[in-house]
User: Fold this.
Amino acid sequence: MLYREYGQTGKKVSLLGFGGMRFANIDDHDECIRTMLAAAEGGVNYYDTAPGYLDSKSEIVFGKAFAEFRRRQLPYYVATKTSLSTPDAIRREIDEQLKRMDIAAIDFYHIWCILSLDNWQIRKKDGVLDTFRKLKDEGLIRHICVSSHLINDDIKELLMEGVFEGVLFGYSAYNFQTRQAAFDAIREKKLGAVVMNPLGGGAIPQNPEKFIFLQRPGENIVAAALRFLWDHSEITNTLVGFENITQVQEALAAMEGYQPRTETELAAVKAKVRDSLEGICTGCAYCVPSRGGKCPQGIPVPKFMDAYNQEIFNEEGGDDPISSRLQWHWNLDRALAGKCTACGLCEEACTQHLPIIERLREIAGDNP
Assistant:
């Protein structure tokens, strides 16, 4: 297992992390604990969960696993989150979290789900930062972090405030362009950087033919996707949501024999994305730059195109992937896409020449 410094905290965390939102059967505590033990015995020491994961059952399972880790003297760091902002609400939540996980303190506590800079300003006014600082002074949390789906300059602006020690954000082989600006702040502020959805929420292993450009000889697609992220020296930890022991073993195997690409080699792989992912929005956000990256009707086009990606990846059908992505990843309603007036500014600026207007109509449900 490889370990990297988490920002300026003095802590070294495993390059592979364990995400606690995808257990195959959260009610089978023994199997969940065995899955976590397989990761810990493989050298994973970073474990991330949240009160909303699996109706808070994830934190309960984590608590039972941590007790076993302590018994076996396996090292671990705890990362969790809160989406609350007011002092009393946060206090009540963290008390419950500490009880559920049977721990005295949380190593990396995240202000969770910052969806816009306006939302961030509101939460600051509510007192979220003052509360986090008090919790740290009291020893209940050790490091103040943030988790956000913001993209491009918005996430950079958030991180440049200088109040965080680390950040958790989505980053994978198909949407990496949307977070490039974040790395400027990560380097300048010397932050710990944990990435979630490194496999694109399952889209990459489910569509290996679309991501063949990532693979080097002898690599399977999971190893290739993880190693692509590990090649980024700014990334401290890649957080994989494991369902079972088999998936843990597959990820651990990717670490064996891993040889980092040079910066030149990594740049060459990134350059292949546009040609290899025809029809997939890569999130460059060049659409309507003349409007500052904003649609005249206020439609966040890159976010809607990201949601449409899920429809393309979901070739076998099933549940509604667009609505799921909009609701849980972006906190948006499909109906907003219906405000499109077909002015064409986004399509004129799209470097991939995607049929954005047609896709927005389809998302809104009025495609002829």
The beta strands are 3-5, 12-14, 16-19, 46-48, 77-82, 106-114, 141-148, 166-170, 192-196, 237-241. The mean pLDDT is 89. Residues 85 and 128 are 5 Å apart (CA to CA). The radius of gyration is 20 Å.
